[in-house]
Amino acid sequence: MRIRTVDTTALPIFLTMLDRAAAWPAASGREGQWGTEPWSTRPEAVRRVDKVLRHGHARLAEIDGEPAGGCVASDTPSEYIPAADEPEWFVNLPVTDRRFSGAGVGAALIEDVRREATRRAVDLIRVDCYAGGDAALVEQYKALGFTPLSQFEVDRPG
Fold first, then answer.
1. pLDDT for 158
2. Residue 149 exposure: Cα atoms within 13 Å on the Cβ side
3. In degrees, to the nearest 5, what angle opens at C-alpha 143 toward C-alphas 77 and 38?
4. CB-CB contact of 152 with 115 (8 Å)
């Protein structure tokens, strides 16, 4: 697996991965996670991904040259999350292409984020995740070393 820095030219890659990833929780009864419509068909979602890519440290994981996952870290959280009272490294748009599920892509990306946070002398790393349905995503992040801090609701269209 290779993890590299990307810029806004990776927008189509991220949208494709998000489209593939969003179909799975929706089919599993977790429509609230990322909605039921592909990200690439929702103008507000495309704008959000573009904005996150423009203002963060975007990383793309590849396996055999194929995009397998990605995330964007920055020193500010998503607009719907209060800022921390200390410097932080916030993980946005963590996604694994479903074709590479089980290959350790998410864990490798989180470890990459941890290395970058250490390089920047930042102790706090945060991510928001969908806690609805069976809370399986919360359990995945706990397995990666995160601790749930709070719950909130985000109203997003389908």
1. 42
2. 10
3. 55
4. no
Give which of 89, 158, 77 is closest to 117, Cα–Cα: 89
Predicted pLDDT of residue 157: 45
Spell out the long-range contacts of 49-57 with Cβ–Cβ below 8 A and sequence spacing 24 or more: 49/11, 49/14, 49/15, 49/18, 49/93, 50/8, 50/11, 52/92, 52/93, 53/6, 53/7, 53/8, 53/10, 53/11, 53/14, 54/8, 56/92, 57/5, 57/116
Tell me if 22 sits within 8 A of 1, measured CB to CB.
no
Output the DSSP codes for 12-31.
HHHHHHHHHHHHHHHHTT-H
Predicted TM-score of the model (pTM): 0.84
The C-alpha angle 44, 48, 52, rounded to 5 degrees, equals 175
Give the list of residues 6+ apart from residue 37 with CB closer than 8 angstroms, or none.
158
The identity of residue 60, as a single letter, is L
CA distance linking residue 75 with residue 80, whole number of Å: 15
* Chain centroid, CA 83 distance in Å: 18
Low-confidence ranges of the chain (pLDDT < 70): 24-35, 130-139, 141, 148, 150-158
Using left for φ > 0, alpha for ψ between -120 and 50, and beta otherwise, residue 49 falls in: alpha
